[in-house]
Amino acid sequence: MNAAHVFHTRVYYEDTDAAGIVYYANYLKFAERARTEILREAGIVQREMAETMGVAFAVRSVSVDYIRPARLDDALIVESETIEVGGATADGIQTVRRAEDRAELARLTVRLACLRLADGRPTRIPEAVRAALSRHIVVTKP
Amino acid sequence: MNAAHVFHTRVYYEDTDAAGIVYYANYLKFAERARTEILREAGIVQREMAETMGVAFAVRSVSVDYIRPARLDDALIVESETIEVGGATADGIQTVRRAEDRAELARLTVRLACLRLADGRPTRIPEAVRAALSRHIVVTKP
Amino acid sequence: MNAAHVFHTRVYYEDTDAAGIVYYANYLKFAERARTEILREAGIVQREMAETMGVAFAVRSVSVDYIRPARLDDALIVESETIEVGGATADGIQTVRRAEDRAELARLTVRLACLRLADGRPTRIPEAVRAALSRHIVVTKP
Amino acid sequence: MNAAHVFHTRVYYEDTDAAGIVYYANYLKFAERARTEILREAGIVQREMAETMGVAFAVRSVSVDYIRPARLDDALIVESETIEVGGATADGIQTVRRAEDRAELARLTVRLACLRLADGRPTRIPEAVRAALSRHIVVTKP
Fold it and tell me: Most CB within 10 Å of its CB: which of C62, C134, D46, D122?
């Protein structure tokens, strides 16, 4: 059965800013760590993916809604759901929650593109990667 | 006459990643630097704004389209246009361009909220700040 | 029995630069994460330390020797040893190793100062914090 | 006549942390920006240096003394002096000052090594680069 991917991370000083909260760009780091772990759990290491398959993912677009701020020392959960895996693109939603009470802190909508490293052109997502991403399609589109 | 705000910055090693291009979260840093300079050019320093007016801006949402990658040593231009200044929120568009050929690299749509620091609640944007942002409304909505 | 503190972390895209390796400033982030976890494992949360005891640590000096580069996807170990806990300062050594083969990647010598937040002046390290740090004094000075 | 190299930069939210000051690792970013500009002012662009000469600089060691904290909105000056240019290494001192009153905030001692990208081995610093660095040797060793 498919399920959202769950990734745990933590807020350190490096993530915060003078407003006392996590700097807005850093939620994109948390989300990217989670996407990396989705692949790793399926046996796909991005450095090897680049070297052996000659492909890499690039983020085409990201939208972030900031709901509540994360603070120093907060334990965080990043929940990732794949929405759709197309030929050369994949769409997903990632929700950053405070672990303590599961409060929603930020919600990201991400579109990834698979690129051929030789020329930077879009290319079909390799089957193993496609399977890894599809494992986290939670709701089948009707 | 109103005009887009223009901010110049540069890509250093710190901004790039192992894919050889600027890491996707870092465009949000470039955009934030530009927003800070919009205020500074109007005589508004954010640290003082917090201390004397008791308010600060928080990003409510940001959407980024990544068009072409920026690379090490690229000179960048961030063009910022205010779309609308509401009571407690302001909407803008920021375009990151390569200075050399003005190629569009990333386009951000940003919504800011003005918050009272005492309780984190939305509050009316101070007049001086409102004027600074309104200076960069390029197209009047019909 | 005292032992070096061991902290596990991982290299993500955010940590690397266009040279394909971890950017040199980011080893300081790894080291700071480890120092935070030393305190946390002793029940000391820095945000609470600031709020209830009115003190915080500042880094007075750090020296880093870069031995071998860490790369994307590397699992890392940060080993931390306390050298000496003085009145208001603490000295330690932190070694960043590649988990796979325990190869030494970077070695940091760090001096921390305990500061009173009210005025930024040095102040005596609280006893609970002193105990937490002393737990990782490996070699007693002769 | 030789002189220290002077580089201007600014503290933005991205550079600060929840303690309200610049995060300690970020002084290394400021220093690296300054080193990049030393080369650029001598007509040496690091991306081209890698592509045409097949060499790059790596930091071998860095020591930082943190004297006073930099804060949000501070204008900073990075003064860089070359101490010695050896065969494959170069040593320098970089001082980060607050522009307003020239107060010393941090002092870095840096050793760079020139590496052949093909195999990562130390290699002789190219003459053009050697000249650029030597321009900032302020005091001749007796």
Answer: C62
